[in-house]
Here is the input.
Amino acid sequence: MSHLPVLPVLILLLTAPVCLIINRVNVAWLMTVLASILALVCAWQILGQVLSSGPLTYALDGWEAPFGIEYRIDLLSAWMLFIISLLGSLVALFARQSIAYEIEPSRQVYFYVAYLLCFGALMGVVSSGDIFHIFVMLEISALSSYTLIAMGRNKLALWASFQYLILGTVGATFILIGIGLIYAMTGTLNIADIAERLETVEQSRTVITAFVFMTLGTLLKLALFPLHLWLPNAYTYAPSVASAFLAATATKVALYLFIRFTYTVFGADFLPMSIILVALGITAAVVGSLIAISQTNLKRLFAYSSVAQIGYLVLGLGMANQTGLTSTLIHTFNHALMKGALFLSLGAVVYRLGDSTFKEFFGLGQRMPLTMAAITIACASLLGLPGTAGFISKWYLVSAAIENDWWLLAGVILMSSLATAVYVWRVIDAGYFQPAVNTQRSEAPIVMLAPMLLLAFANIYFGLETSFTLMVVDGITSSLLGGGQ
Amino acid sequence: MSLMLLIPLVLPLVAAGLVVATGRYPNLRDSISVVAGFIVAATVVMIQQDFQPYSFTLAEPLPGISLAFRLDELGLIFMLVAGLLWPVTTLYAIGYMRGHGEAHQTSFFAWFAVAIGCTMAIALSANLFTLFLFYEALTLATWPLVVHARTDEARAGGRTYLSVLLITSIVFFLLAIIGTWFVAGTLEFTKGGVFPVDVNTTTASLLLVLFVFGIGKAAIMPFHRWLPAAMVAPTPVSALLHAVAVVKAGVFTLLKVCVMIFGEDLLSSLEVTELLMYVAAASILIASIIAMRQDNLKRRLAYSTVSQLNYVIMGALIATGPAFVGSALQIAMHAFGKITLFFCAGAILVAAHKSKVSELRGLGRTMPLTMVAFFIASLSIIGIPPTGGTWVKWYLLMGALEADAVIPMVVLMISSLLSVGYLLVIPARAFFSGDAAAGSIEAGPIKEAPWPMLLAICISTAGTVLLFFYAGPFLKLATLGVSP
Amino acid sequence: MPDQLAYWLIIGLMMIGLYIVIAHANLIKKIIGLSIMQISVFMLYIGIAYVEGGAIPIIDANTILYSNPIPHVLILTAIVVGIATVALAMALIIRINEAFGTIEEDELAAGAGEQ
Here is the structure.
């Protein structure tokens, strides 16, 4: 039996203690990069296999489901594995100098350890077919992300991490309650099994309560408005590399959980969530963008931008049709590309210029032209200009609204892009049309430039050449909507 | 894949790159712009001589929606205008930038070239998606040109420019495109329109409204504010924006939507078409009246442009064959006329340092060539022979007659009179005011603008007159382009 | 009612825990609230596992009825996760105290507002 399904998780989780034992920063970085790339290769292989021959299963330690813990990788899981490992590898490559600059020398190794744990655990969440195993992996990723955030330079990082800890643990506890109630009603922890058994006990109050608890917990982790309060501080004060990684992956995994619970476990028509999701989603999109406009620190600005983008992701789900689901699934990839490029660029700016407020940004086009170019491309994608990946997501989202005859909602979605345009304008105007305080050129080092530019370029590539992404996403929607697994 | 299409599309971008690379050698850099301009102009003329329906597809981002280019007659009109006027404007710009001692010249000429590339792409778009992509790209490529001076005033003007254009395009235009995709199933430009015969009239009307107000570059009121705001840009930019690239892209897009997405039959059957036509007619009159009250020469010309652009919109919405032809012709005729006017305005600024109409009395003494050119170009805008603008009025009137649309005919007459009022007075005062009039220019030796600028002015003025006698090619293209 | 008394107590504890987390400003008290919440969840699981008349879940030839062992196992795991969370939280509190000199939320928020 091929061990491929568990390899990515194993490789990443096992490299962590090895780094800890060796305790030398450069070796730790190298091992992190190698492990990430290996995980990416495995994820690519898995995606290929799932595309050609259907879901992969793997019973841990030989104990068969539904008694043993099973890893079950269908197309949705494979897609998430690919996205997480792609971003994880690129960020890991970028990390060395950024971390050397932002974290004290004695703690730098711990960063890589925590990074590997978080990365591996996130991969575990999306691969697992056992609901409790998902909870454990989720908590591992959460704890390690609290650690990552707390390592930021500013002492407020500690406070941001603590806030996230409180809210995250409350969320996880809710999910745990939900799991307990489901176990009480079905007697199994295996997702496929639960889906079958739930059909007989569907509308009992316990199951509804379980659904509500799990949804609340997941939405907290997803940072959907109004449960988003931990996100801006966490992304702002964390080390730049951590922000890049978390912004691109952590909330996507929460979204994965939500999709899994809604479509696979409970069934899409379980509760009338559609209206709630649409309402919350569009509010998040509008409010997030509006708050972003007035920010002076660019990390915080893009953190609020993430709150808005999460709103779009949820909005797509709320449309309750295939186009909306397509929009959300494509946007998980596109948004990872955008925010990955943006936060990595901010990391480069911090590395060269010390901070990431507008003051450093004036005249950035002259001082760090390539970095500014990457930011411009990523911002164009954020705005959804045609020819970029963001346009594809937006096209599907607005189409989904029109399909439901919700023309007004379609208009509001487009208007929220205008709010995005305002803060994007601020960034670009500052970078290109405001005079620099000091015009000395100090472009980022090539090791940092490469991942950043690659992600920026990907935004354009996947805006024009969408055959791959659409093929995968179409496969996912047909399997999710066509009746469970 | 055809080389002929590639040249006008790709050469401007290549030129932009070369301009940036040779930024340190001004003469080399500027020659690159001029040479590229002439090559593109020659190519476009060659294409016109031997019309073939060239086409090619670059990519397919969404299922059924491709990034594709195709040459058609309307597009060729636009390409001819842009292609012929680019080298002329470049010549003018070289004289202006040097005569005025402007900074950031490399960035200027580079973005200039990029904007022309986007314009060519718009002219060659085979479907609404491709057009939209390059429409947005054009907005962004011209933004650095508008804020060229980098002063607070320039950046504020740039902000207005971007806001109006992006708001209209993102909220209305994009929504209209997605809606069209839903209803019609395709975005390809097709003669006779793409909507099914039994299309829901409410939906079609809604889409038409979204298109008309969404194509902000066509400057229908109240989404015209970006035009006067963009006057903070250097005059060559205003000439480019108001004659060649941005505004023509707007009205061209709207004309294409009316002719090749909606089609004459559907358009004339919708009730809302007439309403929108009245909005355009009102815009013509209101803009003319505002123009008369502007003392700043460039702003006066800007409002004149708003008015002239709405000719195209009104013609497109009258929705009869001759009206469409008139609209298509206006794209060419107005381009040559207006660019001459802006060239003159810039020449006056550089040579005599004047920017207000009230200061131009007696200028005919010191800048006779410029003011004669201004006079001839004004005739074209007003529509008096022997200038190209005459044909526009002719066909628009015929089109209105065919549709029994009295109001547009009246509006056309009145606006011609108004344009006499705000345009002809300028050369009149320049030549025929007495010496003792207050604020007049002192008599002195003839002091025209630098020779590249003068040369450009002469070429464009000649074009305005030639277009009266040799309107044939454009007429043929327009007629072929709008027939189903 | 008596059957469900356990569940009522569990819900009560959960709400008390949640309330403490929200209402108290002192960071350590928040952690205490969090722990109470988690404990209530553990009790929920154990409550599910209870089988009337069941023996401890170790296979024995003479016994037929056992309590459900799975929730017990789940709880063990969850307790460990809980401990790790509390430990991390405590470490953060110590560092916050070193950096800010206070562990009251309102004072910290005020300090953050100035930044």
Summary: DSSP finds 20 helices and two strands in chain B. The two ends of chain B are 26 Å apart (CA to CA).
